[in-house]
UniProtKB/TrEMBL annotation:
It comes from Penstemon davidsonii. Residues 533-618 form the Beta-galactosidase galactose-binding domain. Belongs to the glycosyl hydrolase 35 family. Residues 92-251 form the Glycoside hydrolase 35 catalytic domain. This is beta-galactosidase. Its EC number is 3.2.1.23. InterPro entries: BetaGal_gal-bd, Galactose-bd-like_sf, GH, GHD, Gly_Hdrlase_35_cat, Glycoside_Hdrlase_35.
Length: 643
């Protein structure tokens, strides 16, 4: 899709493409390098050059490990020549979620200083920029991220004013609503930045795409990273946002000579109104007339002429006379995306079930006590089994008509499936706001040895905050059985066996080569049985046409899916909760504003790139954790209409 996306970006008025180089993909652990993706990067660079655009690369040690949160991996503390101290008085910063976080003063500063020095000494000949790093040392340029950056100035007057992340919308998390940022407000924010002397705007995101595989950028973040961007997840234009920004870019470039030749002169035109005027010695002039009132239109007098300014808007006058663009006046029609059925039939579902009872026998190791999940899995899998057993006396009262005992399991996140004697007892999950939770349920045990198998599921890695090494995931306890004749029994410090991943993962069931050598259960009735921990397999032919495609997984619960061995990501039919209200573009935007989709699955459709398909015989593999109806899975196509 790259070539088409890059061309659409150019046609939208962009001058450069910014993309990440995720260093954790190239160096998964210290000294262990993997450069298999370098050929894709070279191809990407060539496509950008062919389109006549500039390229900006973001290089970071780990995904979203931003300097000013001190969120670097533990091993980076031992970089030669740096002395990291954590006994300093912390300073406070406000992050993009609007709350204060703390990081270690000298430790964070020392690391940032080392990183800047290391980068500059590479002698690349290109500028180095640090986002949200107010004390970035020369010649590194500090920059701004946010919904608005007109308040920002660099730490030295000779550095350009750069907006490295102009947030076009916001990401979604499973169980949350969909976010929308009005085109009028986004254009207003960009014009505000330019009128105060801003030099560079980078849209985050102009195209967000999909978090294929397990690459979602944080706990509970959806596979879709649509971000309400001007180009949607499927590569289609989102209107009116795309065209409205395109017209804004045209208007700004008409002002180019005046903008780069002078600083603005600011004049008050009323209580909420201002004029920012750029003028050159050659007589060129450009003006930005702004109205900051959320609701009221204003009539202002400028250069002996009257101008009507809608609420929360800026008019651009490239010649200081004629308005060529107003941020609140949208001329483009709105596109409405729909998912339509294709003529494709997914046929002959087959199943393979995980054997929960064999988990304890397949365990890799046994220790006393409960272990943190990511320290065990090292992110090799989302899944970690915790298994133990308990012996129940035949004299227990609950075996003779008394009340069942209650099993209580405290988890640090993110999802927990509890199995007793091989049967699913229940599932419980946290949220992005509160990852921790407790499973509590009456349990029917029998006399003798009972097996307890806890399948803990991670849904993404830490992404925002400090001291990631202190964050916890998995079952940390206590695990307690209450209601026995002799009171409660704490299982936390008895022997627990551990197994990383699923049997199907170890067998590479998602691989076209390996899946064909496995005995799958066949039959027309197997697909719609609500079984937990079940793998589903089927084939389909590619539909005709060139519309973007998606897999409709609305009939399923929670799991992962693959097409021809390529992971299309985690899926989870979690219904959105939140405050979905009517939306007005006026007023300061924050992510809780203009939400929609409450009461519906946060994500139902999962992007299937056409380049992954063959004309016939495409393999689809679905792993379901909780239970779903695979017979209702379908391939749909994305279409847009204009209103």
């Amino acid at each position: 899709m790259w070539e088409g996306l890059i061309q659409k970006a150019k046609e939208g008025g962009l001058d450069a493409i910014d993309t990440y180089v995720f260093w954790n993909l190239h160096e998964p652990s210290p000294g262990n390098y993997n450069f298999e993706g370098r050929y894709d990067l070279v191809r990407f660079v060539k496509l950008v050059q062919r389109a006549g655009l500039y390229l900006h690369l973001r290089i970071g040690p780990y995904v979203c490990a931003e300097w000013n949160f001190g969120g670097f991996p533990v091993w980076l503390k031992y970089v030669p020549g740096i002395s990291f101290r954590t006994d300093n008085e912390p300073f406070k910063i406000e992050n993009e979620y609007g709350f204060e976080s703390k990081t270690f003063g000298a430790a964070g500063h020392n690391y940032m200083t080392w990183a800047a020095k290391m980068a500059v000494e590479l002698g690349t000949g290109v500028p180095w920029v640090m986002c949200k790093e107010d004390d970035a040392p020369d010649p590194v340029i500090n920059a701004c991220n946010g919904f608005y950056c007109d308040y920002f100035s660099p730490n030295k007057p000779y550095k350009p004013t750069i907006w490295t992340e102009a947030w076009t919308g916001w990401f979604e998390d499973f169980g949350g609503p969909i976010h929308h940022r009005p085109a009028e407000d986004l254009a207003f924010a960009v014009a505000r930045f330019i009128q105060k002397g801003g030099s560079f705007i980078n849209y985050y995101m102009y195209h967000g795409g999909s978090n294929f595989g397990r690459t979602a950028g944080g706990p509970f973040i959806t596979t879709s990273y649509d971000y309400d961007a001007p180009i949607d997840e499927y590569g289609l234009l989102r209107q009116p946002k795309y065209d409205h920004l395109k017209e804004l870019h045209k208007a700004m470039k008409l002002c180019e000579h005046a903008l780069v030749a002078s600083d603005p002169t600011v004049t008050s035109l009323g209580n909420y109104e201002q004029a920012h005027v750029f003028s050159t010695k050659a007589g060129q002039c450009a003006a930005f007339l702004s109205n900051y009132h959320w609701e009221a239109t204003a009539r202002v007098r400028f250069n002996n002429m009257h101008y009507d300014l809608p609420p929360w808007s800026i008019s651009i006058l490239p010649d200081c006379k004629n308005v060529v663009f107003n941020t609140a006046k949208v001329g483009s029609k709105t596109t409405v995306a729909r998912m339509l059925p294709t003529n494709v039939r997914i046929q002959s579902w087959e199943t393979f079930n995980e054997d929960v009872l064999s988990t304890n026998f397949d365990a890799k190791f046994t220790v006393v006590g409960l272990l943190e999940q990511l320290n065990v899995t090292r992110d090799a899998s989302d899944y970690l089994w915790y298994t133990t057993s308990i012996e129940i006396s035949p004299t227990e009262s609950f075996l003779h008509g008394g009340r069942y005992p209650i099993l209580s399991v405290d988890s640090a996140g993110h999802i927990l499936h509890v199995f007793l004697n091989g049967q699913l007892s229940g599932s419980v999950f946290g949220s992005r706001e509160n990852r921790k939770f407790t499973f509590t349920k009456d349990v029917n045990l029998h006399a003798g040895i009972n097996s307890i198998a806890l399948l803990s599921v991670a849904v993404g890695l830490p992404n925002v905050g400090h001291r990631f090494e202190t964050w916890s995931t998995g079952v940390l306890g206590p695990v307690v059985l209450n209601g026995l004749d002799h009171g409660k029994k704490d299982l936390s410090w008895q022997k627990w066996s551990y197994k990383v991943g699923l049997k199907g993962e170890a067998m590479s069931l998602a691989s076209p080569e390996k899946s064909s050598s496995v005995d799958w259960l066949q039959g027309s009735a197997v697909a719609n049985k609500q079984r937990p921990l079940t793998w589903y397999k089927a084939y389909f032919n590619a539909p005709q046409g060139n519309e973007p495609l998606a897999l409709d997984l609305g009939s399923m619960g929670k799991g992962q899916a693959w097409i021809n061995g390529q992971s299309i990501g985690r899926y989870w039919t979690a219904y959105a909760k939140g405050a979905c209200t009517t939306c007005s573009y006026g007023g300061t935007y924050r992510q809780p504003k203009c939400q929609y989709g409450c009461g519906k699955p946060t994500q139902r459709w999962y992007h299937v790139p056409r380049s992954w398909l063959k004309p016939t015989g495409n393999l689809v593999i679905v792993f379901e954790e909780i239970g779903g109806d695979a017979s209702r899975i379908s391939l749909v196509k994305r279409s847009v209409t204009h209103v």
